[in-house]
UniProtKB/TrEMBL annotation:
Keyword hit for Transport: yes
Transmembrane region(s): 14-36, 48-70, 77-93, 99-116, 143-161, 167-185, 211-239, 245-267, 279-297, 303-332, 377-396
Claim: Mitochondrion is one of the keywords in the record: no
Cellular component terms (Gene Ontology): plasma membrane
Top-rank taxon: Bacteria
Main localization of the protein described in the UniProt heading: membrane
Protein name: MFS transporter
Localisation: Cell membrane
Alphabetical keyword list: Cell membrane, Membrane, Transmembrane, Transmembrane helix, Transport
Record's bilayer topology term: Multi-pass membrane protein
Major facilitator superfamily (MFS) profile domain segment(s): 11-401
Organism expressing this protein natively: Catellatospora citrea
Pfam families: MFS_1 (PF07690)
Length: 412
């Protein structure tokens, strides 16, 4: 009866449960991390930002090599190792007393987190039939959002208490969830290490120009649509409307419910990169439409602002779901079977670059320009929606040539 609400038995279900356990702890930590670092450790906001920037840089440099390691050593072993390292890091955060110890641990956490994601994708690619990969990944994303939402609620109490003991409990609790996730992942059937073709480059993903272009475009687009509700909307409500900031919570609730309940639905019919062409275009254009709706709330009565914000949030989450589905298909389909880990790593690097670019762009447009800034943001999404199909087709042409070359080499 409940099987239709779950991924296929075996690896998909085990990974979904491991994700739920892990992201619950992450959600609680994300809720409390800023206050822990500033009020308990004593770092300044500028020092926290420095640590996060250093972590982002470490992730960009090392994520693809760690994905390569997942291919060569097997994604199951690499993911378990990364989860254990992350558990040690969050335990170590309880002993942080100065900036440099925080920077060191933050860098390891960034690399470890990206490694888990890359290995997870490689494990899905190696253990799940191609026709079921996107659906499995959709279940994982739904679970990820559910786990973070539940963890955020759990982190509310330590946040209210605002005591060091409460913050340390969250850190140690998160460390435990990483260990539990590692135990769960041990139940997955191991994916055999993949061997690269003789004579070719080791880091083939870094030579795949269409995929690099897609990873960069997708990373920027994802960062922007993630920041629309968490950053742009609260700044917009404060600076350009008289509506209550509590509308942000309502918008985030709409987004969370949509991501948890509709991601699998949105992935239907999207199995390959060719399927993703139209889905990516549609998703980006729908998110662009949501930006127009947000912009229309400027100077409106509070009741109309609320209506427009909730309508825009609903439209936004639909576009986000379609964009995510298209991304899953492209990343799985354009990567050779023996390089899924490193392609997942390159994709994560694109997301990290987007996370660095997104906040200043969002702030400059929405706060600096007001309603025209929302129109400019809509234009960015629309341009991305028009560019993505060309990049995906470029990648398909390249992967087709590679497959033909490999077949000729095998024949003789």
């Amino acid at each position: 009866m409940f099987s239709k609400f779950l991924p296929a038995p075996g690896t998909p279900r085990v990974l979904m449960f491991a994700t739920l356990v892990n992201t619950f702890g992450n959600g609680a930590y994300l809720t409390t991390s800023a206050l822990f670092l500033t009020r308990s450790v004593g770092l300044s906001p500028a020092q926290v930002a420095l640590g996060l920037s250093a972590a982002a840089l470490a992730g960009m440099v090392l994520t693809t090599p760690m994905g390569y390691l997942a291919d060569r050593r097997g994604p199951k072993q690499v993911q378990i190792g990364a989860l254990i390292v992350l558990a040690a890091c969050f335990t170590g955060l309880t002993q942080v007393r100065d900036l440099w110890s925080y920077v060191l641990i933050a860098c390891v956490i960034a690399v470890g987190d990206a490694t888990v994601k890359a290995a997870n994708g490689a494990m899905i690619a190696g253990a799940v039939p191609p026709a079921e990969r996107v659906r499995t990944r959709a279940f994982i994303r739904s679970t990820n959002n559910a786990g973070i939402a539940l963890g955020t609620l759990a982190g509310g109490l330590p946040l209210l208490l605002d005591t060091r003991a409460g913050y340390l409990a969250v850190l140690l609790g998160n460390a435990v969830t990483f260990l539990l996730a590692a135990v769960v992942v041990r139940r997955v059937t191991a994916v055999a290490p993949a061997s690269a073709p003789a004579g070719g480059p080791r880091m083939v993903a870094l030579r795949d120009r269409p995929f690099l272009a897609f990873a960069l475009l997708d990373g920027v687009v994802a960062a922007l649509y993630n920041e629309v509700l968490s950053l742009a909307l609260p700044l917009w409500l404060i600076a350009h409307t008289r509506a209550p900031v509590a509308l942000v919570s309502a918008a985030l609730l709409v987004n969370t419910i949509g991501c948890v309940t509709l991601q699998v639905w949105a992935s239907r019919g999207t199995h390959t990169a060719a399927d993703a062409v139209g889905v990516a275009r549609r998703g980006a254009l729908v998110v662009a439409a949501s930006c127009v709706l947000f912009g229309l709330s400027a100077g409106r009565p509070s009741w109309l602002v609320a209506v427009l914000v909730l309508a825009a949030s609903t439209v936004h989450v639909l576009g986000e779901l379609w964009l995510s589905s298209a991304t899953f298909a492209v990343v799985f389909d354009l990567a050779p079977d023996w390089a899924q880990g490193q392609y997942q790593g390159v994709h994560q690097t694109g997301r990290q670059i987007g996370n660095m670019v997104g906040p200043p762009v969002i702030t400059a447009l929405v706060v600096g320009w007001g309603a025209p800034g929302w129109s400019a943001l809509a234009a960015i999404f629309a341009a991305a929606g028009l560019a993505a199909p060309h990049i995906i087709r470029w990648g398909l042409r390249r992967s087709g040539r590679q497959a033909a070359t490999a077949a000729l080499a095998a024949a003789g």
